[in-house]
Design goal:
Helices cover about 30% and strands about 15% of the residues. It is of the alpha/beta class. It has one domain (about 15-180): SPOUT methyltransferase, trefoil knot domain (Alpha/beta knot), CATH 3.40.1280. Helix 2 runs parallel beside helix 3 (about 75-80) and helix 2 (about 45-55) runs parallel beside helix 6.
């Protein structure tokens, strides 16, 4: 079941934060790397990505609707208690996300149909890394909206990585290139 922010009682409210144990749902300052999740399907992957972002100090944009309830126990189990140190901003739709995001930030889509390999892409400190749905990626309209389409090269006949693994690899490379790893 997909659930929108409106169905949960609004976008960015304190109640929204309590549903997944996140300390605050608010936009972060400009000039910070962000991770955007487009209509995620699998709560365990979303939880793992939220935990990753919390550990690395990266803010998250959650683009709804999600394929699960945000109070799903599987999401909470994967995220553990890390959402307490995480900044997440929920967006009711792709259009709401586009309207809310900093237009100066490049939107980098991680996709199996990318035109540039991850190790050849040059990240900027204020990029937003966009990950698609586990089941279907992103629609063509989203592909047309991004600044870059980046692929993680895989050996044949492999087709794709788990979205949480792909997100971790892409985020680590972006943090390495921009010297934004915690403690750097």
């Amino acid at each position: 079941m997909r659930q929108t922010a409106a169905e949960l009682g609004g976008q960015g409210s304190v109640e929204d934060a309590r549903m997944v144990g996140v300390a605050a749902f608010h936009p972060g300052p400009g000039g910070r790397l962000r991770l955007a999740l487009f209509e995620p399907d699998i709560p365990q992957n979303t939880g793992a990505l939220l935990r990753l972002a919390a550990c690395l100090g990266v803010e998250v944009d959650l683009i709804e609707p999600c394929g699960f309830l945000l109070d799903d126990r599987r999401l909470k189990r994967a995220a553990l208690d890390y959402p307490a140190i995480l900044s997440v901003r929920r967006h009711a739709s792709w259009q709401a996300y586009l309207a809310d995001r900093d237009p100066r930030s490049r939107l980098i889509l991680m996709t199996t149909s990318g035109s540039i390999a991850l190790h050849r892409h040059v990240f900027a400190a204020d990029d937003s890394i966009l990950l698609g749905r586990e089941s279907a990626g992103v629609p063509e309209a989203v592909h047309r909206s991004v600044s870059e389409r980046v692929v993680i090269p895989l050996r044949s006949p492999a087709r794709s990585l788990n979205v949480a693994l792909a997100g971790a690899i892409a985020l680590a490379e972006a943090l390495r290139q921009t010297a934004l790893f915690p403690g750097q």
